[in-house]
Design brief:
6-stranded antiparallel beta sheet, 14 strands, 307 residues, 26% helix, binds protoporphyrin IX containing FE, 9 helices
Length: 307
């Protein structure tokens, strides 16, 4: 039976999201453990208080702090964020040991939950980064293209995102990958429409996929549509959302998967490219400022923390 999974993973896109990363203060682990043990109840209580907000959240830990909370067992795939580079691009792990991914239809309610969780941790967390994201038009990235179209649908979302019987101690958990991309929109907007569409392998306004034969080997959707050795599509569940100030604009990329290997393979395909070195040309217009890999345990794990 699938364990109860955290609410931030499966539901369809929200209109508002907060991605908040922290480091753990090492001499306050006992405090952090108490807070983690009560965190899924805090999420539940505030979600119940504001049913119209459709408030969802995921709380997760990275490889560096996992053993400080649970030294008996570890999720099979929990590992550092990968390092890939070509002549132009480099992606790497950056700071951030614990994450809150909070999303809802109401910014005020997202704020309330973030604040309540942060207070529960008292001084056991040090803020690394807080990114406030919004739904832009009809779920478009700030480059103007609809993002999330090819996400899995219905029951398939759970099959793609949740750990199953292959790791029985961690069934119902999920691997979350985060990357904060900052776009060079001046450079992007100097490209004509056809060049922009070729870079994605999709049309901009009508959001149609190019025929496979029309896609450049550099197209983003070419580089990220991967298959396993049996010809089955490798999939992740994306919850990326834009963020923007007047001076910095970009995308908080977020994906959930039952194994981090699929995300890692996609990122490698984007950065290193195929055998001929055809890398993802979307990366000429955006820069990854962060890279984080977390495990989002099923809710049961939190309740066993104080046993
Ligand atoms: C597809 C945007 C980074 C994985 C797409 C699409 C857009 C998009 C507009 C087409 C519509 C859709 O199916 O969602 C972006 C932007 C990124 C970014 C703006 C960064 C600035 C990434 C990264 C990964 C990724 C880092 C994974 C490592 C995918 C996948 C698809 C996709 C799997 C679907 C491909 C298909 O089956 O057609 N992305 N993306 N994306 N992206 Fe990204």
């Amino acid at each position: 039976m699938t364990q109860a999974y955290q609410t931030g993973i499966i539901p369809e896109a929200s209109s508002d999201a907060l991605f908040i990363t922290f480091n753990l203060v090492r001499d306050r682990i006992a405090q952090a453990k108490h807070a983690l043990a009560s965190s899924t109840d805090i999420v539940h209580d505030i979600a119940q208080q504001f049913p119209d907000a459709a408030l969802y959240a995921s709380i997760g830990l990275n490889h560096a702090i996992w053993p400080l909370f649970d030294n008996t067992k570890k999720p099979q795939g929990l590992a550092p964020f990968p390092h890939f580079k070509n002549q132009q691009i480099e992606v790497n792990e950056t700071a951030g040991e614990l994450v809150f991914h909070i999303r809802s239809m109401r910014r005020d309610v997202s704020y309330q939950l973030a604040n309540a969780l942060f207070q529960a941790f008292d001084k056991s967390l040090e803020l690394v980064e807080e990114v406030s994201c919004f739904k832009y038009l009809d779920n478009r990235d700030l480059t103007g293209f609809v993002d999330g179209t090819e996400n899995p649908e219905g029951e398939k979302r759970k099959q793609v995102a949740l750990v199953g019987a292959e790791d029985p101690d961690f069934e119902g958990g999920s691997y979350l990958n985060l990357m904060r991309f900052v776009h060079d929109l001046d450079k992007w907007e100097h490209q004509d429409l056809k060049s922009q569409e070729d870079i994605y392998g999709r049309t901009k306004y009508s959001n149609e996929e190019y025929a496979a034969s029309q896609k450049s080997p550099h197209a983003h959707t070419k580089r990220t549509s991967l298959k396993d050795s049996n010809g089955q599509s490798l999939e992740i569940l994306r919850h990326s959302m834009p963020f923007a100030s007047l001076t910095e604009k970009g995308l908080m990329f977020a994906s959930y998967s039952k194994t981090p290997n699929i995300f890692n393979q996609m990122l490698e395909s984007m950065v290193k490219g195929d055998e001929q070195g055809h890398y993802d040309h979307l990366m000429r217009f955006t820069t990854a400022h962060t890279g984080n890999a977390f495990f989002i345990p099923a809710t049961r794990w939190f309740t066993t923390l104080l046993d």
